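Aim 2 progress. For DNA polymerase IV, the working sequence is reproduced below.
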Amino acid sequence: MPHPIGSSDAPLPVVRKIIHIDMDAFYASVEQRADPSLRGKPIAVGGSRERGVVMAASYEARAFGIRSAMPSATARRLCADLVFVRPRFEVYKAISAEIRAVFEEHTPIIEPVALDEAYLDVTENRKRLPTATEVARDIRATILARTGLVASAGVSYNKFLAKVASDHKKPDALFVITPAMGPGFVETLAIGRFHGVGPVTEAKMKRLGIHTGGDLKARSLEDLRAAFGSAAEYYHRVARGIDERPVRAHRERKSIGAETTFAEDTAEFAALAERLQPLIDKVWTTARAKEVSARTVTLKLKFSDFAQITRARSLGAPVLDRTALAAISLGLLRDAFPLRRSVRLIGVALSSLELTGDQGPRQLGLAV
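Predicted structure tokens for this construct:
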């Protein structure tokens, strides 16, 4: 049973047991598993040698400073021996399902974040292991035995600290932050390692003299509100090791999208319209498979200088079929002309999703 904090004389808050699992260089590790000749080599999944972007990098590639979302050409300049591998999403999804099955042996309360990452609430666990640390250890060992892949795990009493813990000593790590450790650990944490503090916010915080969790904790809530608006309360709480967000099982899909990067930039409508067609097919097929419809269609264009724009159209009723999706998408493309410069990437997405099927449409919740 969950154990309370403090005296048993009165009802007290429950200490959650949260695990954050993060697969180590997941896409790259899957490719190295599939092709032993890639093991020990710097590899990048995604893009091509000169075009596109890096989706994932092996740890050997990361040693050269290569990171996800980096332009492929930049990655190539950083590492002349970098091997580019095309992504295989169906394979990644299948392996992710195997990993999910391991989680389900321990708890039904699973919040996927991505194919390679999830939060688990193991306050009560199905194997009746005495501690969350033992649960995490068993999960890591089982994943390795069944898939040959390595997972890092963070164990703590809330989601924020579990996420921090999983990243603390990666790769191939299990790290625990206990309730007694939490507040002090956060005070020493570099501000850039706070989940929810991206590069722009990190730079702003440093300009304000906030370099560590201790610096953040020293700021009043009023000061943080003035600087960071609605995010202030989150920063104020986590600086004290407080995060009351529950692990939310069955997170709903917010959108379905597909995009492609071109071998050569183009500003021709006909060429862009042609390249949009397979993306429309993919998005519509996925929506049908997931038994969802959508009321919003969004077109994305990324230009040769990496600037990007989106154009969206929201409807009063769901998009009825693939023909309607194509018409709306092409209309959005026409509305984007004349183009500011040539295009290197195009994408289309459906959002404002609704479940379909025997019960008719039902608006999906947008769980945080």
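DSSP finds 13 helices and 13 strands in the chain. This observation will guide construct design in the next reporting period.
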